[in-house]
């Protein structure tokens, strides 16, 4: 449940979800609801996804994964416009689950890291780049312990925040590290215009 409504790759400034169906104590019906909700979310059918997540919320009212996914889908349904509402929902989830948003630990569970990442997304949309960077940098130091999709999101959002604070050189450093850490081969770079064009060999 982490793609945009047009089916493309998720933007770094978009919130992400967790895999609800991976709960070990989930019933078969709950797993079916979770998988169906993920499918509907990926297709951009947010109303249908919310309906299925509401079923899950009814049987798992305190499950942080369900609460987070429901909040994210509602945010997407608003076309990422109801940022303050999403921020309040995140705060409520943290309160219910006893999560301190700034207390990043190396052994954090996936849903906790996702909640923190989504909090950074909110700060980004509110143009609070320095506040977002303060938390992202804590997560960045424990990058190897994060789920890969979350780790990539952290790196790309950090780059966006550095651009927002007019530090393109820092953004480039993060992008380079992201390539070497998560990609099997570096991304192709556009040749610099400062480089001289190749010269033909002279006939002797």
From TrEMBL:
Keywords: Cytoplasm, Nucleus, RNA-mediated gene silencing, Transcription, Transcription regulation, Translation regulation. The gene is CNOT10. It is found in: Cytoplasm; Nucleus. The keyword Cytoplasm applies. One of its GO terms (biological process) is regulatory ncRNA-mediated gene silencing. One of its GO terms (cellular component) is CCR4-NOT complex. Residues 185-198 have a biased composition (Pro residues). Residues 13-24 have a biased composition (Low complexity). Component of the CCR4-NOT complex which is one of the major cellular mRNA deadenylases and is linked to various cellular processes including bulk mRNA degradation, miRNA-mediated repression, translational repression during translational initiation and general transcription regulation. Residues 1-31, 183-204 are annotated as: Disordered. The keyword Cytoplasm applies. Belongs to the CNOT10 family. This is CCR4-NOT transcription complex subunit 10.
């Amino acid at each position: 449940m982490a793609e945009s409504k047009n089916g493309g790759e998720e933007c770094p400034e978009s919130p992400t979800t967790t895999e609800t169906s991976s709960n070990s104590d989930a019933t078969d019906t709950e797993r079916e609801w979770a998988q169906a909700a993920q499918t509907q979310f990926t297709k951009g059918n947010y109303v249908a996804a919310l309906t299925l997540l509401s079923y899950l919320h009814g049987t798992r009212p305190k499950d942080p994964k369900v609460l987070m996914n429901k909040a994210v889908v509602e945010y997407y349904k608003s076309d990422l416009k109801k940022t303050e509402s999403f921020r309040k929902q995140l705060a409520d989830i943290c309160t219910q689950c006893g999560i301190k948003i700034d207390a990043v630990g190396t052994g954090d569970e996936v849903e906790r890291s996702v909640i923190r990442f989504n909090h950074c997304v909110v700060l980004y949309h509110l143009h609070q780049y320095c506040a977002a960077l303060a938390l992202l940098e804590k997560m960045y130091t424990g990058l190897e312990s994060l789920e890969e999709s979350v780790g990539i999101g952290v790196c790309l959002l950090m780059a966006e925040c550095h651009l927002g604070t007019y530090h393109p050189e820092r953004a480039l450093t993060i992008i380079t590290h992201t390539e070497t850490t998560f990609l099997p081969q570096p991304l192709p770079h556009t040749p610099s215009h400062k480089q001289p064009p190749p010269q033909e060999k002279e006939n002797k």
